[in-house]
Design brief:
Order of helices and strands: HHHHHH
Mean pLDDT: 82
Distance between the termini: 68 Å
Strand content: under 5%
Number of strands: 0
Largest sheet: none
Radius of gyration: 31 Å
Structural class: mainly alpha
């Protein structure tokens, strides 16, 4: 979705249509707007008396973690840097009473600018199998 068009443009387009003499299609072409937009603006003005854009364009629900929760999380991270996200959820709930998901903790950590490293206790990566014909298995040019 693009950026909302200005209220001034909306008012000029609606006024140009109200003066008469032009169709909605002609007014839309004159102001380089969509006909459907002009129809919506006319309907909104008729129903509410206002043509201002609707401001409620949030993405998803509001965050549960406010500034005080973020500060508390940062204190927890400073003292428990090896804690898993699930453990951080529990610690934050104990201190603040706020229960959030591990995903929310992960996003909050990123907003704080902290990076999470894998623990040194994670299992080592398996090494690739050794080749039958190793370069050290004999003298140069010989096959075992």
């Amino acid at each position: 979705m693009g950026k909302a068009l200005s209220v001034q443009l909306r008012e000029r387009a609606v006024a140009a249509y109200r003066v008469g003499g032009r169709t909605q299609a002609e007014v839309a072409q004159l102001f380089q707007i969509g006909e459907a937009s002009l129809r919506r603006w006319l309907r909104r003005e008729r129903e509410t008396g206002d043509m201002a854009p609707i401001v409620d364009f949030r993405r998803g629900p509001a965050r549960k973690m406010g500034a005080e929760h973020m500060a508390c999380l940062e204190e927890i991270l400073a003292t428990n840097s090896d804690a898993t996200n699930d453990e951080l959820v529990e610690l934050l709930a104990e201190r603040t009473g706020l229960t959030v998901s591990a995903s929310s903790i992960s996003r909050a950590i990123a907003r704080l600018g902290w990076t999470r490293k894998k623990s040194h206790l994670s299992p080592p990566r398996p090494s690739p199998p050794a080749s039958k014909h190793s370069a050290r298995s004999g003298r140069h040019g010989e096959r075992p």
